[in-house]
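Translate structure to sequence.
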């Protein structure tokens, strides 16, 4: 993998802030790039991907859902940027999305998976040694596409929000602190929701939910009351077919902003938060073809939130390096496998920098890109 020959500094007004040379992109504190992608085999159709320390060795491991195989793959990190071979654990049918948290209060990370094909949620409790208990199952509405973690009723226990694609709603499951959950409560979203993220969007110290609605090109904001229930949705326009959503403070005003991957019109939307649960009109950034997933992190060590996007049809990853005013460079592309579908960030080699893990759907592998910042 090399930096795309189409990578370039941003527009005329920003040239003095940049230096472009030798397949590196220089911004502020360092020259930024990635090492060549290294791949690790998983099972068929990897999609959702997340990170966590699953064997208590203070290293960042990876878990990925295998959509065509009814499993998840766990790859343990050696701490030097390389990983063990996969260990697989059974899920429901067509597992799509995965999240990581300690759901039974034993200081070990557990895994929750949204199974699109049989409308269930798999809970796999961790033993702290890289292995997991046999799944227990929760029932969802029609075709759960995404799952996220929040704390919705002020009991300091992790809860779940599940995005049900063909029910046009979210299901909220309140955690009991022992790995089990209360019966779901549903809240309406837009049409064909596909992604969600949890944060406090109105500054009341309660967890709210933002949902990407692929069928009507909107995001829904559901403000939490702190008792497990939510206000009626407010909607904001995005690009065409939003599939994935992430958060960050992109303009450094201490308010939560949103970024959404728009699958059909090859863009991401950035919406700046006003701190009261409402958002600005979107700003569009161009990606490569069919952006599938988006993540946010500081890739070049300047304490600003950069954007990483996987492009399924482009077979690459787009990186947008942030300025301090909410604007970004043009995309810098890095080669990936065939149809990269999920993305997660973590420090995989202990150098204090954010690296990237992607799921290459058609190759049945994950790709690891280690950050170079000199």
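Result:
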């Amino acid at each position: 993998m090399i930096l795309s020959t189409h990578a370039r500094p941003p527009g005329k007004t920003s040239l003095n802030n940049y230096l472009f040379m030798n397949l590196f992109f220089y911004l502020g504190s360092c020259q930024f790039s990635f090492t060549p992608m290294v791949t690790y085999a998983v099972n068929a159709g990897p999609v959702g991907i997340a990170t966590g320390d699953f064997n208590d060795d203070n290293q960042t491991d990876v878990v990925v859902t295998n959509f065509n195989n009814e499993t998840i793959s766990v790859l343990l990190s050696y701490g030097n940027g390389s990983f063990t071979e996969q260990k697989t654990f059974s899920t429901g049918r067509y597992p799509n999305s995965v999240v990581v948290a300690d759901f039974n209060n034993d200081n070990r990370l557990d895994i929750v998976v949204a199974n699109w094909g049989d409308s269930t949620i798999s809970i796999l409790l961790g033993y702290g040694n890289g292995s997991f208990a046999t799944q227990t199952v929760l029932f969802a509405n029609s075709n759960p596409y995404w799952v996220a973690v929040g704390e919705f009723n002020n009991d300091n226990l992790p809860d779940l929000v599940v995005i049900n694609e063909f029910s046009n709603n979210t299901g909220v499951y309140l955690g009991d602190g022992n790995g089990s959950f209360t019966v779901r409560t549903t809240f309406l979203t837009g049409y064909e929701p596909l992604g969600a993220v949890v944060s406090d969007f109105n500054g009341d110290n309660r967890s709210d939910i933002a949902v990407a609605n692929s069928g009507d090109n909107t995001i829904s904001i559901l403000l939490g009351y702190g008792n497990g229930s939510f206000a009626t949705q407010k909607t904001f326009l995005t690009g065409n077919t939003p599939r994935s959503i992430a958060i960050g403070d992109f303009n450094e005003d201490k308010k939560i902003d949103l970024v959404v991957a728009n699958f059909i019109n090859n863009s991401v939307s950035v919406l700046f938060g006003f701190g009261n649960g409402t958002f600005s009109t979107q700003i569009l950034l161009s990606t490569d073809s069919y952006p599938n997933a988006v993540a946010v992190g500081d890739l070049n060590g300047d304490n600003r939130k950069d954007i990483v996007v996987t492009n399924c049809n482009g077979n690459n990853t787009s990186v947008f390096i942030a300025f301090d005013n909410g604007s970004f460079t043009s995309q810098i592309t890095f080669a990936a496998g065939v149809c990269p579908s999920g993305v997660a960030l973590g420090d995989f080699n202990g150098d204090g920098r954010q690296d990237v893990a992607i799921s290459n759907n058609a190759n049945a592998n994950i790709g690891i890109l280690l950050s170079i910042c000199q």
